[in-house]
């Protein structure tokens, strides 16, 4: 079995913080997510990125991985030490129901579905555990606006879970009595589902607030305009003030994630210049060049 360098997969240093790991994951997810990526091997790369994030975003798994992989190199023949299969992890890695898509390397270290099996990391006859069980459930950000229902496969169980409207990333949904099997005659613990949003090519949530880019035509920015925007909670009419520039941020109150109080929606303006594909369009640009005494690099020269 070949060793996998999860830090290299995400492009971060071994001492990277949790925030740095999350940012690297989101950046790569936007690049390789099969719904938006044009990369030839997007599906394969996305699976590798998901697997790396499943380990490095979980403090317990990351610590175990660091201890086991100290000094190992990518592609090097690797085997966990004897007795490792009896180790128990309190969390599923990655996303609920997706662990089966991870590599044999991941399965050898943490179990096919992240190591939270009460029968040991490889499904053998390890000691049973009891108590609460933590797993991750991956949602689309839009699910928070409307609520959702999900069917999750955890080990040999399939659960139907109702996702409440207004759920935020990092929040936990508690399912009473759906945790680990306890000793004979005892009560099972609870299943705790930690919510994670699937990376989106246009929207990003930070707490209750949602952020997105807003492409704007030069005349809309210069003159001001009311534009129709496809926002995560539905279409909105947004007023762009005259003289808007790239980097200016518009705030729409109450249009972030629904909650009490609701979050806000932030839009970062990005000017998009249309190409001059026809003689008339080129003539218009030439006319603008003559009419405007505008130097786009004036500030750079004065600094």
Question: Which SSEs are present, and which pair or pack?
Answer:
Elements: H1 6-10, H2 18-32, H3 42-56, H4 59-69, H5 104-110, E1 133-139, H6 143-146, E2 148-154, E3 157-163, E4 172-175, E5 191-197, E6 203-206, E7 209-216, H7 218-223, E8 225-231, E9 234-240, E10 249-252, E11 265-271, H8 279-291, H9 298-302
Parallel strand pairs: 1-5, 7-11
Antiparallel strand pairs: 2-3, 4-5, 6-7, 8-9, 10-11
Alpha carbon gap, first and last residue: 56 Å
- Radius of gyration over all CA atoms, rounded: 25 Å
Order of helices and strands: HHHHHEHEEEEEEHEEEEHH
What's the CATH topology label of the largest domain? Helix Hairpins
Keywords for this entry:
alpha+beta; globular; Helix Hairpins; HSP40/DNAj peptide-binding domain; 303 residues; 2 domains; 9 helices; 27% helix; 11 strands
Describe the protein.
A hairpin with a 2-residue loop joins strand 2 and strand 3 (157-163). The protein is built from nine helices and eleven strands. It has helices at residues 6-10, 18-32, 42-56, 59-69, 104-110, 143-146, 218-223, 279-291, 298-302, and strands spanning 133-139, 148-154, 157-163, 172-175, 191-197, 203-206, 209-216, 225-231, 234-240, 249-252, 265-271. With 303 residues, it is α+β, with helices and mostly antiparallel strands. It has a four-stranded mixed sheet. Strands 1-5-4 form a three-stranded mixed sheet, with no helix packed on it. Residues 90-100 and 112-130 have low confidence and may be disordered. Helix content is 27%, strand content 23%. It has two domains: 6-197, Orthogonal Bundle (Helix Hairpins); 208-302, Sandwich (HSP40/DNAj peptide-binding domain). The chain is globular.
